[in-house]
């Protein structure tokens, strides 16, 4: 896997993935940015949410569950001192579908957390306290 990050100006950078997709990252005005892109640490948090959500949907669909949606709401805490690393991340999944069982959704969330989500497992191995929960919405 490869990527490039190119400085544009101020605190704005364009990141391009090896698959050819680009994203703008920027900082707040009080740090020299113009606030026109996500912060790099927000990108990490979004990566955890995307990786975990990918797993949850994949596991449920492979189990032939009638899943129609998944929203991962993430909250994180960071250290007060530099480097201001993540200390805690919580993922709350809102999974919707028809007749989804709590055991099936719990299994998908657990498998993502313990076996499949490289992003959250990597951060957990680095000392970030990562927790998960879920709710099921009919429809």
Explain this structure to me?
The protein is α+β, with helices and mostly antiparallel strands and 139 residues long. The chain has two domains: 1-38, N-terminal domain of TfIIb; 40-138, GMP Synthetase, Chain A, domain 3 (2-Layer Sandwich). It is built from three helices and six strands; from the N terminus they run βββαββααβ. α1 (40-62) packs across α2. The longest helix has 23 residues, at 40-62. It starts with a strand and ends with a strand.
Described by strand count, sense and barrel closure, the largest sheet is: 3 strands, antiparallel
Write the element-wise H/E pattern from the N-terminal end onward. Answer: EEEHEEHHE
Q: In angstroms, what is the radius of gyration? A: 17 Å
Shape: elongated
| Helix/strand class | alpha+beta
CATH class of the largest domain: Alpha Beta
Mean pLDDT: 97
CATH architecture grouping of the largest domain: 2-Layer Sandwich
Distance between the termini: 37 Å
CATH homologous superfamily of the largest domain? K homology (KH) domain
User: Approximately how much beta-strand content do the residues carry?
Assistant: 35-45%
Which topology of the largest domain does CATH recognise? Answer: GMP Synthetase, Chain A, domain 3
Number of domains in the coordinates?
2
Total number of beta strands: 6
**Helical region count?**
3
Helix content, binned percent: 25-40%
The largest beta-sheet arranges its strands as 1-2-3
